[in-house]
Amino acid sequence: MILTQKYISLPELKIDDLTVKLPIIQGGMGVGISMAGLASAVADQGGIGVISSVGLGLLHDKEMKNYRAGNIIALREEIRKAKRLSSGIVGVNVMVAVSDYDDLVRTALEEEIDILFLGAGLPLRLPNGVSIEFLKSVKTKIIPIVSSARAAKIIFQTWEKKFNHIPDGVVVEGPKAGGHLGFKPEQIDDPAYALEEIVPQVVSVIKPFRIKYGKDLPVIAAGGIFTGEDIFRFLQMGASGVQMGTRFVATNECDADIRFKEQYIYCKKEDIVIIKSPVGLPGRAIINNFLRDVSAGIKMPFTCPWKCLKTCDFKTSLYCIAKALMKAKIGNLTNGFSFAGSNAYRIENIISVKELIENLKREFEIAYLELTKILTPQFAL
Ligand SMILES: Cc1cc2nc3c(=O)[nH]c(=O)nc-3n(C[C@H](O)[C@H](O)[C@H](O)COP(=O)(O)O)c2cc1C
To answer: Which atom of ligand 1 is nearest to the CA of 224?
Structure first.
């Protein structure tokens, strides 16, 4: 490897006029896995803490009687709570595929969230009630999440053409991530779609926009990033930061029940499987009896008072994914299951966010020293 960037220690991350102390983003994790507790802890340590907006209303209104209104109220509460708990940088993750996408984006903008991460679909239109003038006037940065250079290009070109404006950066999520994946099942293990392949492709697609607009437009790598050495490698490939999910689940501050976190500690490599989600996308999760029953064709009875996902085929679906994920969040793994990244089996214990960040910093610095020793042996001690 050529040492392209001389990062001795974890560098800052610049997103337009925003400077983040560390280039580490804690990925938004639903339902209720990353809320104000985790997000504020990460923000406090100098990274970006992200609240997942999906299904928050369900935690208050389990019968989904007024799910839509409940989601707005709950998101507003979480943002305010995170802001009370930390003066660091906090973001909100909104899935483009949810029916109340417009409401959630508008709420996060009204609350002046620092960054909006828009995933699970391409954000090619402005939400109802949000004009481009308004978007340009607020301090919120917009960062879409993509799984290919093609998707990044489509978003940036469309925004430029339609709005004469572009997003502030992009997260590129590879096939090793947890949760829903933006890949076809056959692409997941194909080396051509590995994150190491896609990151440089996204960097070259974004480069002309960086030059034209004179902006940093960071490319953030996600999916399977586990150690500080991994962060070092992806920064060398041209990423400006990383987004990590799985590692943050196994922290004291993560908002999931301890039984959810324990799944990560006790699972083995072969327990981490790809499922076909009712959303219509593949997803990575930890196998349990609930998922075994579903894959055997057993239907889990449910009613759907409100179709929360635009793409959910709830009439043929064997279970309600929103409810299953909500159950898992509160530790009921008989009626639910947990999403997890491909490296979840490497988790050995639950630590604090502070400890995790300190470990990542140390590993990053060691990776730099190791590489300089190889490249310039005369300087080796
Ligand atoms: C339990 C769990 C829930 C997730 N939920 C969401 C979500 O609601 N929206 C989203 O865009 N990504 C979601 N993700 C993806 C993460 O934000 C992150 O990008 C990904 O997990 C990174 O890969 P890693 O887990 O290997 O670090 C989820 C991941 C996990 C593990």
So the answer is: 26
Distance 33 CA to ligand 1 centre (A): 10
How many angstroms separate the CA atoms of 101 and 60, rounded?
Answer: 19
Domain ranges of the chain: 13-255+350-366, 260-329
Closest atom, ligand 1, to C-alpha of 119? 11
Does the reported pTM lie above 0.90?
Answer: yes
The encoded tokens of residue 221 equal 């790598």
Tell me the pLDDT band of 1, cut-offs 50, 70 and 90. Answer: low
Ligand 1, residues 24, 29, 284: which to mutate, most atoms within 8 A of Cβ?
29
Domain 13-255+350-366: CATH class, spelled out: alpha beta
Distance linking the first and last C-alpha atoms of the chain: 21
Is residue 381 very low, low, confident or very high in pLDDT (cuts 50, 70, 90)? very low
Q: What percent of the chain has pLDDT over 70?
A: 95
**Residue linked to tokens 């196998």:** 287
310 alpha carbon to ligand 1 midpoint, in Å?
19
**340-357: pLDDT as tens digits:** 999 999 999 999 999 999
> Which class for 380: exposed (0-12), middle (13-18), buried (19 or more C-beta within 10 A)?
exposed
Ligand 1 atom at minimum distance from 173 CA: 19
Question: Could you tell me what percentage of the chain is helix, strand and coil, using 3-state DSSP and rounding each to the nearest 5?
Answer: 40, 15, 45
